[in-house]
Amino acid sequence: MNILKLGIPKGSLENNTVDLFKKAGWRITYDSRSYFPDIDDPEISCTLVRAQEMSRYIEDGHLDLGLTGIDWILENNSDVVAVQDLVYSKVSTRQARWVLVVRDDSPVRSIEDMEGKHISTELVNFTKRYFAEKNIKVSVEFSWGATEAKV
């Protein structure tokens, strides 16, 4: 029997993902110290993986499928197929948005105004590609979260 290898996002989306599978008829249980949850289907095995890494594990063949955000697929430039958009997050059922944030008193009013500016983001690779495609030179650094506080 071929076992389907499913990646469950570890962290902020973990509980909502387990709830999503419960609504679909599967029961996923695990010890908080384990990276390998049990699922009540002998044809599926589960692994907890950070959403940021999920697309790479799928692309490399370590997993058959998994749940992650389109942002991480784009950041990793992964060659995977997004089968379905699932609109849920750790805090709402609304779709997430990416925004470019500047201070109220900033002269930046358009993307072109970012020329020569410094950007802090979790999506370094995607951001560099985005601005390069628009021929806008920016400096990009990784942010460990709470990025909006760095404005």
Structure description:
Helix content is 24%, strand content 19%. With 151 residues, it is of the alpha/beta class. The chain has two domains: 4-76, 3-Layer(aba) Sandwich (D-Maltodextrin-Binding Protein, domain 2), CATH 3.40.190.10; 111-150, no CATH class. The strands form three sheets. A three-stranded parallel beta sheet has the order 4-1-5. A hairpin with an 8-residue loop joins strand 2 and strand 3 (38-39). The longest helix is centred in the N-terminal third of the chain and has 10 residues, at 14-23. The chain is elongated, with a radius of gyration of 18 Å. The chain starts with a strand and ends in a 9-residue tail after the last strand.
Number of strands: 7
Q: In percent terms, what proportion of residues is strand?
A: 15-25%
Poorly predicted tracts of residues:
none
CATH topology of the largest domain: D-Maltodextrin-Binding Protein, domain 2
- Largest beta sheet: strand ordering: 4-1-5
Q: Would you tell me the structural class of the helices and strands?
A: alpha/beta
Number of domains: 2
Name of the CATH class of the largest domain: Alpha Beta
> What is the terminal-to-terminal distance?
53 Å
Number of helices: 4
Can you summarize the main beta sheet?
3 strands, parallel
State the shape. Answer: elongated
Average of pLDDT: 91
- What is the helix fraction of residues, given as a range? 10-25%
Rg value: 18 Å
What is the CATH homology-level superfamily of the largest domain? Periplasmic binding protein-like II
The run of helices and strands is EHEEEHEHEHE
CATH architecture verdict of the largest domain: 3-Layer(aba) Sandwich
